[in-house]
Amino acid sequence: MEQLLHYVWKHKLFPLSQLQTTAGEPVEVIDTGLHNHHAGPDFFNAKLRIGGTLWIGNVEIHERSSDWYQHGHHRDAAYNNVILHVTGTDDSEVVTESGKQLPQMLLAVPETVSKHYRELLAVDNYPPCYQIVPHLSSLMLHAWMNALQTERLEQKTEAINSRVRACNGDWEAAYFVTLARNYGFGINGEAFETWARSIPLHAVDHHRDDLFQIEAFFLGQAGLLEPTAVARQHRDAAVAEGYLTRLQAEYRFLANKFKLQPMDASQWRFLRLRPQNFPHIRIAQLANLYFNRQASLSALIDCTTVEQAQHILHTKATPYWQDHYAFGSPSRHSEKHLSAASLHLLMINTFVPMLFAYGRYKGDERLCDRAFDFLEQLKAEDNSIVREWRGAGLQVKTAGDSQALVQLKRNYCERKDCLRCRIGYEYLASSFKKQRGNGGIPPAIALLAEEEPSS
């Protein structure tokens, strides 16, 4: 309930007149202040008129007045500049660490807001606010989608920055780790990141002109040349092929030379994985990409069009894997090119975020703008999230749109964080604003907000 009180205060979802303190002094809310999500008072620099006096300071909000003491604010000097204590239940006077008794104001959550909030939390359908989507203004939706798109890129930037720190500031290595992680396409993402982190690229560079040695390096570090890993993929534990034997011998030489330790092959997932997505195939594709000097950050930065970026990411398996899916498991001959769908996902999840993150690092707005341009040029992803929102009446055309909806579901809908969502705000606030006589809210939305969501 306290979170809802914060929401009602922040968005002024209360009568704008007849507010008063528990002592009967009139209160005029000029500015609710800046919402603080960290330690300290809940709202900074609010502007209020209490009993005819103008106050500028902080506001603290609790469900009950006594929570002031439960949270220890009476012993914390950071709360001495609070000018008003807002509460849902007045069960105690409140005093600051400096000994000042604070004015308090009771704040009730409007019944319509409370009712709609309970509905959003209880509904099982996704998206929970699907009823209101067709009635929202295109301007509001466009602004919210743009904000979500930026938020998702910022989140991915932080993940990339974390990899850069883990790679001791080496952006090339961090790019390789990011690219490798996305070669896992979800199921093997963690395993691919672990694998890429285990590879000392400076050592691989000594053998970069030899595709066979790169492949031995890559497959060996993945643990896929270990006898137990080979046996796991082939029922005949004694299987031995000339190519496998050569790879194992080459990796033993490299491991001894560079003091290498392979990862545990049990981290790789094969269950319900189509053969073309097996780690062996993906690693062979990465080996070819690395050998042809396409897996570099500098190559990425030089791309100014989507077509150029897709060209440098396009690759195929090495010769042995064009006839196999695993050691001792032949397949129909195919170059096993990276599919168009896989290339599309790599563009969205690797190329664009790296361009944006590196642009931020360099302070180069051109790179950041190019990342957004690419998202607008790439078509939307085809996944369950996009299909569900389209079913609710939302237009989803570009990769920027689909990335915004992924962010919306994972960071808002799944967490039931409707109070931070602009669509949730429209659903919660529309009928209250109509009652208060606030223009600009379409009647259709207000009427819809009165309906019970279908089960």
Describe the structure.
Strand 3 (43-50) and strand 4 form a beta hairpin. The strands form two sheets. Strands 1, 2, 3, 4, 5 and 6 form a six-stranded mixed sheet that branches. This protein has a two-stranded antiparallel sheet with strand order 7-8. The relative contact order is 0.11. The chain has 19 helices and eight strands. With 455 residues, it is α/β, with parallel strands linked by helices. The two termini are 24 Å apart.
Class computed from helices, strands and strand pairing: alpha/beta
Pattern of helices and strands: HEEEEHEEHHHHHHHHHHHEEHHHHHH
Provide the helix percentage.
40-55%
Continuous helix count: 19
Count of extended strands:
8
Unreliable segments of 5+ consecutive residues: 438-455
- Give the C-alpha Rg: 29 Å
* Gross geometry: elongated
Q: Largest sheet, described in full?
A: 6 strands, mixed
Short synopsis of the structure:
The chain has 455 residues and is α/β, with parallel strands linked by helices. The chain is built from 19 helices and eight strands. Helix content is 49%, strand content 9%.
